Amino acid sequence: MELLEAKEILGQEFSFIADFLIEVVLSLDIKEDSHILDVGTGSGRMAITLALNGFNVITGEPEDDFSEYAKLDWLESAKKVNVEELIVFKPFRAEELPFENEIFDVIFLFGALHHVDGRELAIQECYRVSKQNGIICIIEPTPKMIKIIRKTTPTHPEEEDPRNYIGELPLSVEIIKNYFFHAYIFKK
Q1: Helical H segments across the chain, by residue range
Q2: Which of 41, 83, 127, 160 sits in a 20 to 30 Å window from 116, CA-based?
Q3: Torsion sign over Cα 115, 61, 76, 73
Q4: pTM, 2 dp
Q5: Better pLDDT: 72 or 73
Q6: Is beta strand 130-141 parallel, antiparallel or unpaired with respect to 181-187?
Q7: DSSP annotation string for 75-102
């Protein structure tokens, strides 16, 4: 399915960010057979964007997270655009990823890091499960986007700069900026 058609089917919430997510995904030059992890499923925007581009994705949320974001119906949206078979949901915590070392080529955290309590541990876990030369792409809202979010969700946490949580990990970083989101692309 073409992105334009998917944007029409999934509506404003998806189409608002879809072009930026596509820009980020295309800039990464991801190989077709890559192992991809999406940490923090939410409404499924990242996993669906990847699946619309033909990628298989593992995604997940903590099993005990009952926040409004963790319980959004990503599967219904994926079915609407016929990509549900490319997405596998597995409950997990970002701070304790249930995967072996060095198995993912690309890991995404879209709008998730600022919801994780153990941010440094989550990034260490992403580093652990990413392959040598792997990519960890953390997309965070800008302060402008947080102001918009807080109109409907006043207690929403502040945005985070993931560079503050990489510690001594040997990662290079590139940033793709947008008015509402920044993509921090870490390379192992």
Answers
A1: 3-10, 12-27, 45-52, 74-80, 119-129, 143-152
A2: 83
A3: negative
A4: 0.95
A5: 73
A6: antiparallel
A7: HHHHHHTT-GGGEEE---BTTB--S-TT
Separation CA 90–CA 114 (nearest Å): 21
Residue 71: how many other CB atoms lie within 10 Å? 12
User: What domains appear along the chain, each with residue ranges and CATH number?
Assistant: 3-187 (3.40.50.150)
Report the alpha-carbon distance of residue 59 to residue 57 in Å, rounded: 6
Q: How far apart are CA 140 and CA 109, in angstroms?
A: 8
Higher pLDDT, 133 or 65: 133
What Rg value do the Cα atoms of the chain yield, rounded? 15
Residue 137 token pair = 């792409």
Question: What is residue 59's predicted lDDT score, i.e. its pLDDT?
Answer: 97
Copy the structure tokens of residue 45.
Answer: 């925007």
Task: Count other C-beta atoms under 10 Å from residue 118's C-beta.
Answer: 14
Count Cα neighbours of 186 within 13 Å in the Cβ-side half-sphere: 25
CA dihedral 142, 147, 150, 155 (to 10 degrees): 70
At 64, is the pLDDT very low, low, confident or very high (cuts 50, 70, 90)?
confident
